[in-house]
Amino acid sequence: MRALRILLILAVILGGLFVIADRVAVNFAEDEAAERMRTTEGLSTTPNVSIKGFPFLTQVASGELDDVEVGIADYEAATGTGDETIRISDMKADMRGVEFSGDYSSATAQTATGTATIAYDELLKTAKSEPTDVSPGVSAKVIGLSAGGNGKIKVEVEATVLGKKLPEPVSVLSTVSVKGDTVQVRADSIPSLGVDLAENAVRSITDFQQNIDDLPGGIKLDKVEGGKDGVEITVKGSNVKLAG
After folding, report:
1. Pfam families from the xrefs (predicted)?
2. Angstrom distance (rounded) from CA 69 to CA 120
């Protein structure tokens, strides 16, 4: 009995030491992965990296991590127009089946899914926010974007007719969608700007699009919809690089 008790105590101690070693190793790996990703993607701040699953050390021995979660507070995505970028906030991605090289210098996820937000004031930079002539004597501009409910966004347009600004901005509900690497905003109906105008003239103000290139690791836009604080985007990808 005494020998069995000693063996049990040793097993508990060794098990505890293994857990401690495992957690120390995973914390070190998370910090290293975050720093490598910050460097690879040219991020202004270090992302949060969380390696899921236990034990970590057996995953390392297999050369593949089951599940890695990555969080990036702010990411400046290219727009395909010179040096212009658009800020994407609160990006969270779930990476599955992450294979890494022997020296840990590179890591690639078999699949990745995630979410992020483009704030309305950020997307407003893409809209016609400067007065634009839509017909002789009539100019208009988008002055605000906000949540429209049910995944729609509300576009507020200010118009000036023959030198006189309309008393109130005109609002229109718009559908937001994805086509390839582009977020598109299209009015569900044409707002009245106080005069009869051709539909394409009005849509030249209300409808706009924003190209988004070079997302982290090569992930791609999947779906978008209007949310409380901005356009909520869903991303996905395969063979997504975390580092290297």
Report:
1. LmeA (PF11209)
2. 26
